[in-house]
Amino acid sequence: MRHYIGLIRKDADSDFGVSFPDLPGVVTAGTTLDEARDMAEEALAFHLEGMEEDGEAIPEPSSLDEIMSNPENRSGVAILVSVKDDQPKIVRVNVTLPGDVLEQIDKYAEAHGYTRSGLLAQAAKRMITEAA
C-alpha cells in the first residue's frame, strides 16, 4: 500500500479541493469531505498507474513535516491518502460525445477541480448507485 499526503482546501463558494504536493497537477474535488477523500484516492490511483504504464519513476512520498514546511501548503488541511497496490486496473476508453456536451463537461470539471475522467467516473458511479 502506498500513502501520500493530500491537501484539502475549500473556499466559501467552492467544493472541497484536494491536491498532492508530491505529484503536481494531480487535483480533484468533491462536494463533501467524504466525496473529496474518495475522489482523492481515485485520482491518486489513476495517476500512479499511468506513471507506471508510461515507465515514469514514482516519487517517494514526502513526510508531513516536509510538506508543511512549504508556506504554500499551510493553507491546506493534510490528509493521508492510501492506494492499494491491488486497485482495480484503470482502463482508457474512447468515448464519442456531442461537442457541446463535451464542452459543458470540461467547463464543469475545471470549475469544480475534477479531471474529465474523474467527473465522468463519479457521475457514472452516482447514477449506478441511485438506480440500485
From TrEMBL:
It comes from the Bacteria. Pfam families: HicB_lk_antitox (PF15919). GO terms for biological process: regulation of DNA-templated transcription. Transmembrane segments: none annotated. Residues 4-124 form the HicB-like antitoxin of toxin-antitoxin system domain. InterPro entries: Arc_rbn_hlx_hlx, HicB-like, Ribbon_hlx_hlx, TA_system_antitoxin, TTHA1013/TTHA0281-like. This is Type II toxin-antitoxin system HicB family antitoxin. It comes from Bradyrhizobium commune.
